[in-house]
Write a structure and sequence with these properties.
Belongs to the exbB/tolQ family. The accessory proteins ExbB and ExbD seem to form a complex with TonB. Keywords: Cell inner membrane, Cell membrane, Membrane, Protein transport, Transmembrane, Transmembrane helix, Transport. Involved in the TonB-dependent energy-dependent transport of various receptor-bound substrates. Protects ExbD from proteolytic degradation and functionally stabilizes TonB. It is a multi-pass membrane protein. The structure is a single chain. The protein is built from eleven helices and no strands. With about 250 residues, it is mainly alpha-helical. The longest helix has about 55 residues, at about 170-225. It starts with a helix and ends with a helix. It has one domain. Helix 8 packs antiparallel against helix 9. The model is unreliable at about 1-5 and about 230-254 (pLDDT under 50).
């Protein structure tokens, strides 16, 4: 019989015991789970790139309702839309249930808006980090799971060889080589998970920083009726920002 046919994955599976098969199935489950999470986050990142101009479109809208509508069209179910909707809802709640003509009323309104924006950011952060713990766990444990399968496979092979009394090189190399496949499987599962975890973590940091900046602008506008101008644009002519900064307060004050 050909050596390549005598020893291989099929031969390893047929000669393995329940523990080796359980390790192989565990690695397969880890691989399927990690690739599902990777592809799901990749699709989400592709959608997020299409939402890049939604924030500027919001600030360029003639009023708040139009801005929220633009966010809903250009960035549906995104953290930016959720943040703006939450801030708008909090502002409407404050106007209905607090008195703004007193210092206490103004302080309470600012606190309500701040808490609403923080809550939205916290929910968005939890959604962005969903699945990262699983990816990190797979990336850190898969090599050891594969190594355990290798150690157990070598032990199982040596026991069989000693029982048969044939300890020649050709009888040892095949079973030991098959057992080493489990380590390779563990690395095959772990490496994509680790790389994806690092990439997703970096992308989350960038998106959360943009979301935090948007929250500061929203808080300033809902509290004072004016968006904080970017530092680079603070010395620019006033005609560059009237559509965004001057038009939105008109609806907010309504």
């Amino acid at each position: 019989m050909d050596t390549s046919q005598a020893f291989g994955l099929a031969h390893l599976w047929s000669q393995s015991d329940a523990i080796i098969r359980a390790v192989a199935l565990a690695l397969l489950l880890m691989s399927v789970t990690s690739w599902y999470l990777i592809l799901a986050r990749l699709l989400r990142q592709l959608r997020a790139r299409r939402h890049a101009g939604a924030v500027e479109a919001f600030w360029a809208a003639p009023d708040l309702e139009a801005g929220l509508h633009r966010l809903q069209l250009q960035a549906p179910e995104s953290p930016f839309e959720a943040l703006a909707q939450q801030g708008a809802a909090a502002t409407q709640h404050v106007r209905r249930h607090t008195r703004g003509d007193t210092l206490g009323g103004k302080l309470d309104a600012d606190e309500v808006i701040t808490r609403a924006l923080r809550k939205s950011i916290a929910l968005s952060t939890a959604a962005l980090e969903s699945g990262l713990t699983v990816l990190a766990s797979i990336g850190s444990t898969a090599p050891f799971v594969g190594l355990f399968g290798t150690v157990w496979g070598i032990y199982h092979a040596l026991v069989n060889i000693s029982a048969s009394g044939m300890a020649t090189l050709d009888k040892v190399a095949g079973p030991v080589g098959e057992a080493l496949i489990m380590t390779a499987f563990g690395l095959f599962v772990a490496i994509p998970a680790v790389l994806a975890y690092n990439a997703i973590t970096r992308a989350n940091r960038v998106e959360l920083s943009e979301l935090d900046a948007f929250a500061h602008d929203l808080h300033a506008w809902f509290s004072t009726g004016s968006r904080i101008a970017p530092l680079a644009a603070s010395h620019a002519p006033s005609s560059e920002t009237p559509g965004a900064a001057a038009a939105l307060p008109a609806s907010g004050a309504a």
